[in-house]
Amino acid sequence: MKWPLHRDRAILAAAPLVVVAAWACHHDTRLFVAATLNGVTLAALYFLVASGFALIFGLMRNVNLAHGSLYLLGAYIGYTVGDQTGSWYLGVAAGALGAAVLGVVLQVSVFRFMPGQELRQALVTVAISVVLADLMMWVWGADIYQLDPPEWMYGSSVLPIVQHYPTYRLILLVLAVAVGGGLWLLLNRTRIGMMIRAGVDDRMMLAATGVNMQFVFAVTFAIGAGLAGFAGVIGGSALSISPGEDTRYLLASLIVVVVGGLGSVAGTAVGALLIGLSEQYGLAYAPTYGVLFTFLIMVATLFYRPQGIFGGR
Hints:
Layout: H1 5-27, H2 29-59, H3 67-85, H4 88-109, H5 118-140, E1 156-159, E2 163-166, H6 167-189, H7 191-201, H8 203-208, H9 213-238, H10 245-260, H11 265-285, H12 290-304
Antiparallel strand pairs: 1-2
Helix pairs in contact: 1-2, 1-11, 2-6, 2-9, 2-10, 2-11, 3-4, 3-5, 3-9, 3-10, 4-9, 6-7, 7-9, 10-11, 11-12
């Protein structure tokens, strides 16, 4: 049986991690398992953020460098609503909805008038992200916040070897799998998903059939931005909410999408997994040089397969 080329590329990209894993497991099994679990759950958070970016950048070809600001804004809104109401669920809904609304505003007021102008889109959204960062600093200050999840998510779960592992991180992993499955179904099994993909391939032909293209792209942008806001609340419950997180997760989303391939849900998942594991293995075994591992993966991907592991030509 002949394997598709992208599977060979995925195996090639994962090979260094396999070597590191074999060596690490031989030396300290417990540390290796803990680092692996941390890497997988961090990858789940990266996937939640990058999936919205992949939807907007990969499918619509809109360079939204304010995506990290959508993440942080959703986190702040979710924290404020959750703190005022005492409901984590309302905080999650408010964070996702607030980011989705801002995403629609960006699509209608910015990207609608710049189709295919990637450089202009990048410059404008960088300016927007700077403005949003200052506004968020003005409203919420420079303090570090964390939204408390429901009580049943607290505590730890008993796992082999590591014995105890935070339950919330495992729930984060389940949420990422659910979101990934939902995105795949949306793009491949629904009418709106078919319209999104058709509009990317031939916008004029789809418009000629009577489809309102602006509505389709506004919905797409709302979904992508809403995922960023959703990830902001989820990440703010697992880690923290503070200035600078927008830049961190924008950079992570860019790297994940470049490694995985534009517009591919499976590629985004693989890219997030590679980056999450490389970061945590680096912290565990080579903290001085750990930051280099991520960029080595990206450079290797760009050299051997510039369109990404699962990206089309």
